Amino acid sequence: MSDGAAIWADAMIAAALAAIDPAAASVMLRAGAGPVREQWLELLRELTPATTVLRKLPPSISDDRLLGGLDLAATLQAGRPVMQRGLLAELHDGMLIAVMAERIAPSTVAHLTAALDTGMISIERDGLSLRAPARFGLIALDEGIGDEHVSPALADRLACHLDLGMVARADLGESLFTSSDIAAARALLPQVGLSDEAIAALTTTACALGIDSLRAPLLACRIARIAAALDGATDVAESHIACAARLVLAPRATRLPAADDETETNEAPEPENDPAENEEDDRSEDGPLEDRVLEAAQAAIPADLLKRLQEERATRLRSSSASKQGTTQKAPKRGRPIGARRGEWRAGARLNVLETLRAAAPWQPLRRAQRSGKSGRLIVHKDDIRLTRFKQRSGTTTIFVVDASGSSALQRLAEVKGAVELLLAECYIRRDEVALIAFRGKGAELLLPPTRSLTRAKRSLAALPGGGGTPLSAAIFAATELALAVKAKGQAPTIVLMTDGRANVARDGVGGRSEAEAEALVAARQLALTGIPVVLVDSSPRPQDKAAQLAGAMQARYVALPHADAARLSQAVMAEASRG
Q1: 406: exposed, middle or buried (Cβ count in 10 Å: 0-12, 13-18, 19+)
Q2: pTM exceeds cut of 0.90
Q3: Residue 518, Cβ neighbours under 10 Å: how many?
């Protein structure tokens, strides 16, 4: 059997388990839209009983539609508070299919995880309270590309993790189960028991695979019981435990289990005298149950697990994407709406009419009773006023400070210019502003004020001459002043300093290596106090201690140009910008 066919066989088992007990056998399915995923969803629908409600969850669903709340139209018409049921309350004992689960909003993730944990939804707002049962199964369709994944908090609560990326259409076999099998398993499930030995085996396997979450072995125990019911058994057997290990534990593994060292002994084999002892040896030659379950889980772990985990960790470290650079700030009238708040309606604020009506609606009967003869009009008090809140993302300005002195020009000025041009292109794609400071001779010069013009930046860089001394302290002071000015305008500055770190000209233009280096360290420490993110790119042919020492003084990210390509330099700049 090919790898794709084996994965598809486990996928069919997971679909059957979800049909038997949706709440206990939720599934995270990583697969793009296509015939393989559609075949699995069709199989799930065929196996799910007709009495089970199936609904789709869009990634941009509102809290009112998800949880329920005040029905504003019905409330205004009836003159009394009218509650509407949310999707989760309507879905009790049903199944929810989340499309593009990797894009679900954080607030929706929080509501889903709370409902999955408690089996209830609880709402207390708009002067009303609502509690309703909401036990449901979740099928999260992960369509992420690259480092896009379902929220870890949500994925941790989903039992079976499947990746159909290796499954081809030729691997799709006929269904192993029928709707009658599902009905029989549902009736048998309450009678299935799980032994202490099985629980210990799954827990030990989870520890050996580096799984820190306590939910994983608990979910594996539930899956083992459902698998036994699907097999028509009332006791969980080794095959059912192995199935749970493959579907629940193996996809969550963070390390491969350590191999036991084979030790040699000089002891002679014992004589075969007692037949009973021989029978016991035959029974135990396969090892304890924990080892066999671990072997089954290890066989289901992809061969490139460690490599993928390392790549994902590296991706998370540089988590901010190129399109989300810059700091966020609250603005009264501009930006993206992020909800409403109670406040006084004054100049510069935007009234949120819908939320204001929602806040006023529950109190209308009481207010109309207090104001006899004025019924029929909506009575709004000052405390009902709700204002729209906005969040606006500020721009980012990358300040390039380039060493054009003789030591750099004779060695790597051309390569430095090439690296800066690549970073300029990255900044242009993100619509960031860029500035260029060059230092040589006796001082530093602002060649290009902050601009979004890629042509002007490249022209200024191409005309940059080389030669002369290295006034490093003057360059650091100039970059600090410009960065503070940019920050005062509400933008987020990032400094990229490209130098070999060998200063030999002080700020007053007088030569002297020791004095110039000491002055550069003072300027670097002052820059560190501002909290402005800095990337120091060592442009010397070999990494220098002076450059690394300077980076430490200014608390900058140190990158050696001989070992850095354009992608690494861009990642370093992005990481520092996000830190700021």
Answers
A1: middle
A2: no
A3: 14
Q: Which CATH number does the domain 192-256+288-304 belong to among 1.10.8.80, 3.20.20.70, 3.30.70.100, 1.10.1200.10? A: 1.10.8.80
Q: What is the dihedral of CA 130, 131, 137, 143, to 10 degrees?
A: 40
| pLDDT tens per residue across span 193-208 | 888 888 888 888 888 8
How large a percentage of the chain has pLDDT more than 90? 9
Task: Out of 18-27, 128-137, 339-348, 428-437, pick the least confident.
Answer: 339-348
62-120 pLDDT, tens digit each: 877 888 777 777 777 777 777 777 888 888 888 999 888 888 888 888 888 888 888 88
Residue 435 and residue 450 in contact, taking contact as beta carbons nearer than 8 Å = yes
The SS3 call for residue 94 is coil
Is beta strand 557-560 parallel, antiparallel or unpaired with respect to 433-440? unpaired
- Range 188-193, long-range pairs (CB < 8 A, 24+ positions): 188/229, 188/232, 188/234, 189/20, 189/21, 189/225, 189/226, 189/229, 191/234, 192/225, 192/226, 192/228, 192/229, 192/233, 192/234, 192/235, 192/236, 193/234, 193/235, 193/236
Superfamily of domain 3-169: P-loop containing nucleotide triphosphate hydrolases (3.40.50.300)
79 DSSP 8-state letter:
T
pLDDT at 271 over 50: no
Average pLDDT over residues 340-353: 72
Q: CA 378, CA 374: separation in Å to the nearest integer? A: 9
CATH topology of domain 396-579: Rossmann fold (3.40.50)
